[in-house]
Design a protein that fits this description.
This protein is an all-alpha fold. The protein folds into 2 domains: about 100 residues; about 120 residues, Pectate Lyase C-like (3 Solenoid). It is built from 5 helices and 2 strands. It has a two-stranded antiparallel ribbon. Strand 1 and strand 2 form a beta hairpin. Helix 2 runs parallel beside helix 4. The termini are far apart.
Amino acid sequence: MAELKAISTKEEEIDSPKSNISKRFLNHSVYEWLTLLSTLFVPLVVGILTIVLPLQQQNLSDRQNENSKTISLHNRLQEMGLLQDQQKQIILNTYEQDLCNLIFKYNSMKNYNDDDDNDDERVSLVIRTKTLHALRQLDPTRKILIIQLLIDSGVQNRINVSHADLSSLIFPPGSFYNQLQFVNVIARKLSLKNIYLYQSNFSYSILDESSFHKSNCSYADFSYASLQRTDWTNTDVTQGIFNYTNLLGSNITTQQLATVQSLRGAILPNGSTVAI
Protein backbone atom coordinates (compact mmCIF):
# COMPACT_ATOMS: atom_id res chain seq x y z
CA MET A 1 0.00 0.00 0.00
CA ALA A 2 2.79 2.37 0.87
CA GLU A 3 4.37 1.70 -2.51
CA LEU A 4 1.05 2.47 -4.34
CA LYS A 5 0.66 5.75 -2.50
CA ALA A 6 4.19 6.71 -3.40
CA ILE A 7 3.56 5.96 -7.07
CA SER A 8 0.28 7.96 -6.99
CA THR A 9 2.02 10.88 -5.37
CA LYS A 10 4.70 10.84 -8.03
CA GLU A 11 2.07 10.79 -10.79
CA GLU A 12 0.28 13.77 -9.27
CA GLU A 13 3.57 15.62 -9.09
CA ILE A 14 4.13 14.84 -12.77
CA ASP A 15 0.54 15.88 -13.84
CA SER A 16 0.52 19.06 -11.79
CA PRO A 17 2.88 21.04 -14.05
CA LYS A 18 0.92 19.98 -17.13
CA SER A 19 -2.28 21.20 -15.47
CA ASN A 20 -0.69 24.49 -14.64
CA ILE A 21 0.62 24.83 -18.15
CA SER A 22 -2.88 24.21 -19.60
CA LYS A 23 -4.38 26.87 -17.37
CA ARG A 24 -1.77 29.50 -18.15
CA PHE A 25 -0.65 31.10 -21.41
CA LEU A 26 2.18 33.59 -21.71
CA ASN A 27 2.38 33.72 -17.94
CA HIS A 28 -1.27 34.76 -17.64
CA SER A 29 -4.23 32.73 -16.51
CA VAL A 30 -7.37 32.17 -18.60
CA TYR A 31 -9.27 34.40 -16.23
CA GLU A 32 -6.75 37.17 -16.73
CA TRP A 33 -7.03 36.84 -20.50
CA LEU A 34 -10.83 36.90 -20.32
CA THR A 35 -10.68 39.97 -18.13
CA LEU A 36 -8.34 41.67 -20.58
CA LEU A 37 -10.50 40.78 -23.56
CA SER A 38 -13.65 42.02 -21.87
CA THR A 39 -11.82 45.20 -20.91
CA LEU A 40 -10.86 45.75 -24.56
CA PHE A 41 -14.16 44.57 -26.02
CA VAL A 42 -16.37 47.07 -24.22
CA PRO A 43 -14.56 50.19 -25.53
CA LEU A 44 -14.42 48.58 -28.98
CA VAL A 45 -18.19 48.02 -29.00
CA VAL A 46 -18.75 51.52 -27.68
CA GLY A 47 -16.50 52.91 -30.40
CA ILE A 48 -18.32 50.98 -33.13
CA LEU A 49 -21.70 52.09 -31.81
CA THR A 50 -20.43 55.65 -31.64
CA ILE A 51 -19.75 55.48 -35.39
CA VAL A 52 -22.68 53.30 -36.52
CA LEU A 53 -25.50 54.90 -34.54
CA PRO A 54 -24.97 58.42 -35.95
CA LEU A 55 -24.79 56.96 -39.46
CA GLN A 56 -28.05 55.11 -38.91
CA GLN A 57 -29.58 58.23 -37.42
CA GLN A 58 -28.40 60.22 -40.45
CA ASN A 59 -29.84 57.64 -42.85
CA LEU A 60 -33.14 57.72 -40.98
CA SER A 61 -33.12 61.50 -41.06
CA ASP A 62 -32.36 61.46 -44.81
CA ARG A 63 -35.25 59.07 -45.44
CA GLN A 64 -37.55 61.23 -43.39
CA ASN A 65 -36.44 64.29 -45.35
CA GLU A 66 -37.02 62.48 -48.64
CA ASN A 67 -40.47 61.42 -47.50
CA SER A 68 -41.23 64.97 -46.42
CA LYS A 69 -40.08 66.29 -49.79
CA THR A 70 -42.20 63.70 -51.62
CA ILE A 71 -45.27 64.55 -49.57
CA SER A 72 -44.62 68.26 -50.03
CA LEU A 73 -44.23 67.83 -53.81
CA HIS A 74 -47.41 65.74 -53.97
CA ASN A 75 -49.33 68.37 -52.04
CA ARG A 76 -47.88 71.09 -54.26
CA LEU A 77 -48.94 69.27 -57.40
CA GLN A 78 -52.43 68.81 -55.97
CA GLU A 79 -52.62 72.51 -55.16
CA MET A 80 -51.44 73.43 -58.66
CA GLY A 81 -53.97 71.03 -60.20
CA LEU A 82 -56.74 72.53 -58.09
CA LEU A 83 -55.61 76.04 -59.00
CA GLN A 84 -55.56 75.19 -62.71
CA ASP A 85 -59.02 73.65 -62.44
CA GLN A 86 -60.32 76.78 -60.72
CA GLN A 87 -58.77 78.96 -63.41
CA LYS A 88 -60.40 76.90 -66.15
CA GLN A 89 -63.74 77.17 -64.40
CA ILE A 90 -63.30 80.95 -64.19
CA ILE A 91 -62.56 81.05 -67.93
CA LEU A 92 -65.72 79.05 -68.65
CA ASN A 93 -67.84 81.22 -66.37
CA THR A 94 -66.43 84.39 -67.92
CA TYR A 95 -67.08 83.07 -71.41
CA GLU A 96 -70.66 82.20 -70.52
CA GLN A 97 -71.25 85.69 -69.11
CA ASP A 98 -69.63 87.37 -72.14
CA LEU A 99 -71.70 85.27 -74.53
CA CYS A 100 -74.92 86.22 -72.77
CA ASN A 101 -73.95 89.89 -72.79
CA LEU A 102 -73.07 89.83 -76.49
CA ILE A 103 -76.30 88.10 -77.44
CA PHE A 104 -78.32 90.54 -75.31
CA LYS A 105 -76.47 93.49 -76.83
CA TYR A 106 -77.01 92.16 -80.35
CA ASN A 107 -80.73 91.62 -79.78
CA SER A 108 -81.06 95.14 -78.34
CA MET A 109 -79.29 96.66 -81.34
CA LYS A 110 -81.39 94.58 -83.69
CA ASN A 111 -84.63 96.00 -82.24
CA TYR A 112 -83.53 99.59 -82.92
CA ASN A 113 -81.69 99.13 -86.19
CA ASP A 114 -83.23 97.68 -89.32
CA ASP A 115 -79.88 97.51 -91.10
CA ASP A 116 -78.28 95.01 -88.74
CA ASP A 117 -76.03 93.06 -91.14
CA ASN A 118 -72.89 94.86 -90.01
CA ASP A 119 -73.83 94.46 -86.35
CA ASP A 120 -74.51 90.77 -86.87
CA GLU A 121 -71.14 90.27 -88.51
CA ARG A 122 -69.37 92.27 -85.81
CA VAL A 123 -70.98 90.34 -82.95
CA SER A 124 -70.33 87.02 -84.67
CA LEU A 125 -66.66 87.93 -85.05
CA VAL A 126 -66.37 88.84 -81.36
CA ILE A 127 -68.09 85.59 -80.33
CA ARG A 128 -65.77 83.58 -82.59
CA THR A 129 -62.69 85.27 -81.12
CA LYS A 130 -63.80 84.67 -77.54
CA THR A 131 -64.83 81.09 -78.35
CA LEU A 132 -61.50 80.14 -79.92
CA HIS A 133 -59.60 81.80 -77.07
CA ALA A 134 -61.59 79.86 -74.47
CA LEU A 135 -61.31 76.56 -76.35
CA ARG A 136 -57.52 76.83 -76.43
CA GLN A 137 -57.38 77.04 -72.63
CA LEU A 138 -60.00 74.53 -71.55
CA ASP A 139 -60.05 70.77 -71.06
CA PRO A 140 -62.28 68.46 -73.18
CA THR A 141 -65.03 68.32 -70.54
CA ARG A 142 -65.44 72.10 -70.51
CA LYS A 143 -65.05 72.35 -74.28
CA ILE A 144 -68.21 70.25 -74.58
CA LEU A 145 -69.99 72.77 -72.34
CA ILE A 146 -68.94 75.60 -74.66
CA ILE A 147 -70.28 73.73 -77.68
CA GLN A 148 -73.52 73.17 -75.80
CA LEU A 149 -73.69 76.86 -74.87
CA LEU A 150 -73.32 77.83 -78.52
CA ILE A 151 -76.07 75.42 -79.54
CA ASP A 152 -78.44 76.44 -76.75
CA SER A 153 -77.91 80.14 -77.48
CA GLY A 154 -78.72 79.65 -81.16
CA VAL A 155 -75.44 81.11 -82.45
CA GLN A 156 -73.60 77.87 -83.19
CA ASN A 157 -74.51 77.93 -86.88
CA ARG A 158 -73.65 81.60 -87.15
CA ILE A 159 -70.00 81.50 -86.11
CA ASN A 160 -66.99 79.75 -87.57
CA VAL A 161 -64.86 77.64 -85.22
CA SER A 162 -62.53 76.39 -87.95
CA HIS A 163 -58.99 75.41 -86.95
CA ALA A 164 -60.06 74.87 -83.33
CA ASP A 165 -58.62 71.80 -81.61
CA LEU A 166 -61.58 69.74 -80.39
CA SER A 167 -59.78 66.43 -79.99
CA SER A 168 -60.82 63.85 -77.40
CA LEU A 169 -64.24 65.37 -76.75
CA ILE A 170 -66.80 62.95 -75.32
CA PHE A 171 -70.35 63.85 -76.27
CA PRO A 172 -73.06 62.59 -73.89
CA PRO A 173 -74.72 59.52 -75.41
CA GLY A 174 -78.32 60.06 -76.45
CA SER A 175 -77.83 63.80 -77.04
CA PHE A 176 -79.20 65.76 -79.98
CA TYR A 177 -76.54 67.64 -81.93
CA ASN A 178 -78.39 67.87 -85.21
CA GLN A 179 -76.84 70.31 -87.71
CA LEU A 180 -73.63 70.45 -85.70
CA GLN A 181 -71.02 72.58 -87.47
CA PHE A 182 -67.53 71.11 -87.13
CA VAL A 183 -66.04 72.44 -90.37
CA ASN A 184 -62.27 72.44 -90.83
CA VAL A 185 -61.49 71.54 -87.22
CA ILE A 186 -58.95 69.22 -85.64
CA ALA A 187 -61.00 66.67 -83.74
CA ARG A 188 -59.15 63.37 -83.37
CA LYS A 189 -60.53 60.64 -81.11
CA LEU A 190 -63.98 62.15 -80.76
CA SER A 191 -66.53 60.04 -78.94
CA LEU A 192 -69.85 60.53 -80.75
CA LYS A 193 -71.54 57.33 -79.67
CA ASN A 194 -75.32 57.11 -79.94
CA ILE A 195 -75.62 60.80 -80.93
CA TYR A 196 -78.11 62.45 -83.26
CA LEU A 197 -76.03 64.22 -85.92
CA TYR A 198 -78.64 64.71 -88.63
CA GLN A 199 -77.47 67.17 -91.31
CA SER A 200 -74.27 67.92 -89.42
CA ASN A 201 -71.25 69.24 -91.27
CA PHE A 202 -67.78 67.73 -90.66
CA SER A 203 -66.25 68.68 -94.01
CA TYR A 204 -62.50 69.39 -94.23
CA SER A 205 -62.01 68.22 -90.64
CA ILE A 206 -59.49 65.76 -89.19
CA LEU A 207 -61.55 63.14 -87.32
CA ASP A 208 -59.13 60.20 -87.24
CA GLU A 209 -59.80 57.44 -84.66
CA SER A 210 -63.18 58.91 -83.76
CA SER A 211 -66.26 56.83 -82.99
CA PHE A 212 -69.72 57.31 -84.49
CA HIS A 213 -70.98 54.07 -82.93
CA LYS A 214 -74.80 53.76 -83.21
CA SER A 215 -75.16 57.43 -84.13
CA ASN A 216 -77.55 58.96 -86.66
CA CYS A 217 -75.33 60.60 -89.28
CA SER A 218 -77.95 60.71 -92.01
CA TYR A 219 -77.55 63.59 -94.45
CA ALA A 220 -74.31 64.59 -92.73
CA ASP A 221 -71.50 66.05 -94.83
CA PHE A 222 -68.02 64.49 -94.46
CA SER A 223 -66.55 65.87 -97.69
CA TYR A 224 -62.74 66.10 -97.70
CA ALA A 225 -62.62 64.91 -94.10
CA SER A 226 -59.98 62.54 -92.73
CA LEU A 227 -61.81 59.60 -91.12
CA GLN A 228 -59.02 57.06 -90.82
CA ARG A 229 -59.55 54.19 -88.36
CA THR A 230 -63.01 55.47 -87.37
CA ASP A 231 -65.78 53.34 -85.88
CA TRP A 232 -69.11 53.16 -87.76
CA THR A 233 -70.66 50.17 -86.02
CA ASN A 234 -74.48 50.28 -86.48
CA THR A 235 -74.23 53.92 -87.64
CA ASP A 236 -76.90 55.39 -89.92
CA VAL A 237 -75.13 57.14 -92.82
CA THR A 238 -78.15 57.35 -95.11
CA GLN A 239 -77.68 60.09 -97.72
CA GLY A 240 -74.40 61.09 -96.16
CA ILE A 241 -71.85 62.88 -98.33
CA PHE A 242 -68.37 61.33 -98.40
CA ASN A 243 -66.80 63.04 -101.39
CA TYR A 244 -62.98 62.82 -101.28
CA THR A 245 -63.17 61.47 -97.74
CA ASN A 246 -60.34 59.31 -96.38
CA LEU A 247 -61.89 56.20 -94.76
CA LEU A 248 -58.69 54.16 -94.68
CA GLY A 249 -58.76 51.57 -91.90
CA SER A 250 -62.30 52.41 -90.79
CA ASN A 251 -64.88 49.68 -90.21
CA ILE A 252 -67.69 51.17 -92.29
CA THR A 253 -69.32 48.34 -94.25
CA THR A 254 -70.21 47.98 -97.92
CA GLN A 255 -73.88 47.88 -96.94
CA GLN A 256 -73.55 51.22 -95.15
CA LEU A 257 -71.69 52.82 -98.06
CA ALA A 258 -74.44 51.68 -100.39
CA THR A 259 -76.85 54.04 -98.58
CA VAL A 260 -74.76 57.22 -98.85
CA GLN A 261 -75.51 60.01 -101.29
CA SER A 262 -72.04 60.36 -102.77
CA LEU A 263 -68.61 58.74 -102.52
CA ARG A 264 -66.85 60.53 -105.33
CA GLY A 265 -63.07 60.33 -104.99
CA ALA A 266 -63.26 58.77 -101.52
CA ILE A 267 -60.53 56.48 -100.17
CA LEU A 268 -62.25 53.30 -98.97
CA PRO A 269 -61.25 51.27 -95.88
CA ASN A 270 -59.19 48.84 -97.99
CA GLY A 271 -57.18 51.69 -99.54
CA SER A 272 -58.86 51.71 -102.95
CA THR A 273 -60.19 54.98 -104.34
CA VAL A 274 -63.67 55.50 -105.76
CA ALA A 275 -63.62 56.70 -109.36
CA ILE A 276 -64.48 60.33 -109.92
